[in-house]
Design goal:
10 helices, single chain, 3 domains, Cytochrome Bc1 Complex, Chain D, domain 2, elongated, 5-stranded mixed sheet
């Protein structure tokens, strides 16, 4: 009986081991990826050089140790040498590593200088980190947009959503508006943040940079292959740090020109929306969508918030108070609190919609806010 129990336990162990190993195989990689930029491939080749140097050193050192242990063991009659030090040996084991480090420093320095030398760029993109979203401004084209976690992922991640994350493609690594760039184009990135420190990271590009409030970091890239490349914020930037993905879509230069034309057309349409007079039903529908994508992370979908950092909106003084005060708070933020300024993130029509939704949904107010009302509120 004991033998059968041992046999059964061993079989269970083997099966579990096989399952775990087969599962791990899906993520198993024997080396770092080459990436899709010239710089990332330079880093990969530098890594391989250093790796082979370390392998050769390891083989020589451990080979010499193993040979000496076996060849000069006591059982063969060898007696240990009696000395305290050897100047010759000390010179050798000091000089050789120095030479190796100097030789390795040349390619490493070349790659680092290349990484920090964004000259002769073809275009510039400003990247601004917010809790918990990214804004991309195409400085040469004169337009920009916000990129946030995809709506499907955002809904699935909510507690009690009942949605199986396995059914969501690229769960937590998809956005509503990816960063679109042309291939074979040198792109300068200017990175900053509006609230806390973030870090913009796409592994396929071969680098990451911190986005720091009040400071501008810069980096550059030139993507060689069309495709979609995913990353995320690599700095612990707050409670929703894990829901701040980065998606870069590299397209041909012709497709990029078409996309730019489409985005500029969208800006014209947005200007029309900011001049339009909306019905309450339109504002409520649009406001709910914006609230769930932009505000629910802090205030929750039901408006209950997470006090004290993120107060409840239900029957709150801000929501039930003077309309102008609430527009000012949403548009310009509230210093000393976690409330960010959304005036430089959302359009006037978006702000009007979300304020209308919040006032009616959580404050039981019968208010309708138009884009013109938002535009009329200044920071003073």
């Amino acid at each position: 009986m004991i033998k059968n129990g041992i046999k059964s336990a061993w079989q269970t162990f083997v099966v579990l081991g096989a399952v775990l190993f087969s599962t791990a195989q899906a993520e198993l990689a024997l080396n770092m990826p080459k990436g899709v930029t010239e710089f990332s491939r330079d880093v990969y080749h530098l890594h391989m050089i250093v790796l082979w140097v370390c392998i050769v050193i390891g083989v020589l050192v451990f080979g010499a140790m193993i040979y000496s242990i076996i060849k000069h063991r006591k059982s063969k009659g060898h007696k240990p040498a009696q000395f305290t030090h050897s100047t010759k040996a000390e010179v050798i084991w000091t000089t050789i590593p120095i030479i190796i480090l100097i030789v390795m420093a040349f390619p490493a320095t070349r790659v680092l200088i290349k990484m920090e030398d964004p000259q002769d760029m073809d275009m510039t993109i400003k990247v601004t980190g917010y809790q918990w979203k990214w804004r991309y401004d195409y400085l040469d084209e004169g337009f920009g947009f916000l990129s946030t976690l995809d709506r499907k992922s955002n809904l699935a991640r909510q507690p009690g959503s009942g949605i199986d994350p396995e059914t969501i493609p690229n769960y937590l690594l998809e956005v509503d508006h990816p960063l679109v760039v042309p291939v074979n184009t040198k792109i300068r990135f200017l990175l900053t943040a509006d609230d806390v420190i973030h870090s913009w990271w796409v592994p396929a590009l071969g680098w990451k940079r911190d986005a720091i409030p009040g400071f501008i970091n810069q980096a550059w890239t030139e993507i060689l292959e069309p495709g979609t490349y995913r990353g995320q914020c690599a700095e612990l930037c707050g409670k929703d740090h894990g829901f701040m993905p980065v998606v870069v879509k590299a397209v041909s230069k012709d497709d990029y020109k078409k996309w730019v034309a489409m985005m500029k057309g969208a800006e014209v349409e947005q200007a029309k929306l900011d001049e339009k007079t909306w019905s309450k039903e339109e504002l409520m529908a649009k406001g709910q969508e914006i609230f769930e994508s932009q505000c629910a992370s802090c205030h929750q979908k039901n408006g209950q918030g997470m006090p004290p950092a993120f107060p409840s909106l239900v029957e709150s003084q801000t929501v039930k108070g003077p309309l102008k005060d609430m527009i000012h708070t949403v548009k310009f933020g509230r210093p000393g609190t976690a409330m960010s300024a959304f005036g430089n993130i959302l359009s006037d029509s978006d702000l009007a919609a979300v304020i209308t939704y919040v006032r009616n949904q959580f404050g039981q107010q019968n208010d309708v806010v138009q884009p013109q009302d938002v535009a009329a509120i200044n920071q003073s």
